């Protein structure tokens, strides 16, 4: 009987491992976001010569927990003229796509335990980078539906702004990543990291890194590219009519997307989990690089003012897009000439 149960569990080990990985990823992201919110508040306080949260718990660490409890019990109001189904669906789409996108992000080398190889990723896909771009692009539907279903012209304008902005900067994002794909010859993020075993792509492709980073900031709706929100112009953008946990879900999706974008920049340009001159501790070095990039995201928000919308679009279409095309063509020529 025991042998039969053991054999059954062994035969479906991949299934149990997949379920455990999914649970760890979801719990990890949901617990990391409050810490990231605290970090942003503290860093912005330092950048702006003030203290930031320091009252609730030691160093203000419990402030995120207090905010979560407040939002959890806050009254949620849905306007009678709103489309109730789409209104409730929109924040779910934003959070779901953000978490699923992160499932294809590798954050270390595989290891063996009890004779079973465990990969430090949710799913090892041969087309991992395409999967991430495809699923993350679906998140825009949640933002557009939030603005459309609210029956509020300011919310609708915020949603339309977001769709136009993300379409514009996704082109630059994809073309910048394409130069890395061309040089590595693979769509697998693990292969791309292994291709940087001796030298990170930020050294060999600095322009692609800069283009990808700028487009990544715009893709995550972070300042100075947070035009979909633009509370000075649009009350509060696409989530004007939301309150309580539905309101918090949009911010949860934004912060998870920021973590995913930082991880993607690390994998494509910073060598992933490779330490180069220091001893390799794969997950630690990967987490450290992601953490530093998150700090840069916060630094940008504290430093640069929001740019005007027409200049945002002109910057994407007239400057970044042509530059990314030239960059891709240059590296295509280099790849062909070395064959």
TrEMBL record:
List the membrane topology term(s). Answer: Multi-pass membrane protein
Q: Where in the cell is it found?
A: Cell membrane; Membrane
Q: Which UniProt keywords apply?
A: Cell membrane, Membrane, NAD, Oxidoreductase, Quinone, Translocase, Transmembrane, Transmembrane helix, Ubiquinone
Asked whether the UniProt record includes NADP among its keywords, one would answer no
Q: Which residues cross the membrane?
A: 12-39, 85-107, 127-148, 169-190, 202-218, 255-276, 282-300, 312-334
What do the Gene Ontology cellular component annotations say? plasma membrane
Q: What is its EC number?
A: 7.1.1.-
One MF annotation (Gene Ontology) recorded for this entry:
quinone binding
As for what it does, the entry says: NDH-1 shuttles electrons from NADH, via FMN and iron-sulfur (Fe-S) centers, to quinones in the respiratory chain. The immediate electron acceptor for the enzyme in this species is believed to be ubiquinone. Couples the redox reaction to proton translocation (for every two electrons transferred, four hydrogen ions are translocated across the cytoplasmic membrane), and thus conserves the redox energy in a proton gradient. This subunit may bind ubiquinone.
Q: How does it assemble?
A: NDH-1 is composed of 14 different subunits. Subunits NuoA, H, J, K, L, M, N constitute the membrane sector of the complex.
UniProt-listed NCBIfam families? PRK06076.1-2
Protein name (Swiss-Prot/TrEMBL): NADH-quinone oxidoreductase subunit H
Q: Taxonomic lineage of this organism?
A: Bacteria, Pseudomonadati, Nitrospinota/Tectimicrobiota group, Nitrospinota, Nitrospinia
Q: Which gene encodes it?
A: nuoH
């Amino acid at each position: 009987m025991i042998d039969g149960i053991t054999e059954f569990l062994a035969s479906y080990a991949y299934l149990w491992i997949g379920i455990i990985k999914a649970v760890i990823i979801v719990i990890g992201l949901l617990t990391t976001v409050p810490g990231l919110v605290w970090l942003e508040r503290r860093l912005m306080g330092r950048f702006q010569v003030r203290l930031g949260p320091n009252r609730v718990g030691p160093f203000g660490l419990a402030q995120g927990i207090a905010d979560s409890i407040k939002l959890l019990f806050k009254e949620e109001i849905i306007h009678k003229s709103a489309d109730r189904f789409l209104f409730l669906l929109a924040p779910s789409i934003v959070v779901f796509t953000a978490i699923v996108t992160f499932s294809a992000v590798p954050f270390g080398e595989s290891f063996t335990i009890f004779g079973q190889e465990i990969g430090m990723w949710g799913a090892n896909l041969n087309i991992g980078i395409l999967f991430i771009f495809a699923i993350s692009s679906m998140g825009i539907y949640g933002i557009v539906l939030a603005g459309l279903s609210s029956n509020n012209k300011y919310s609708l304008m915020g949603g339309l702004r977001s769709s136009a902005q993300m379409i514009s900067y996704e082109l630059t994002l994809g073309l910048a990543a394409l130069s890395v794909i061309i040089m590595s010859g693979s769509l697998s993020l693990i292969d791309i990291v292994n291709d940087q075993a001796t030298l990170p792509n930020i050294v060999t492709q600095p322009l692609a890194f800069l283009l990808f980073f700028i487009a990544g900031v715009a893709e995550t709706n972070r300042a100075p590219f947070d035009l979909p929100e633009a509370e000075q112009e649009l009350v509060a953008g696409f989530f004007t009519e939301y309150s309580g946990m539905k309101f918090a879900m949009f911010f949860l999706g934004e912060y998870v997307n920021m973590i995913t974008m930082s991880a993607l920049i690390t994998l494509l340009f910073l060598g992933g989990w490779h330490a180069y001159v220091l001893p390799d501790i794969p997950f630690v070095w990967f987490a450290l690089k992601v953490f530093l990039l998150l700090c840069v995201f916060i630094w940008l928000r504290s430093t640069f003012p929001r740019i005007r919308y027409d200049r945002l679009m002109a910057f994407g279409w007239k400057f970044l897009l042509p530059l990314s095309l030239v960059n891709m063509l240059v590296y295509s020529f280099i790849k062909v000439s070395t064959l």
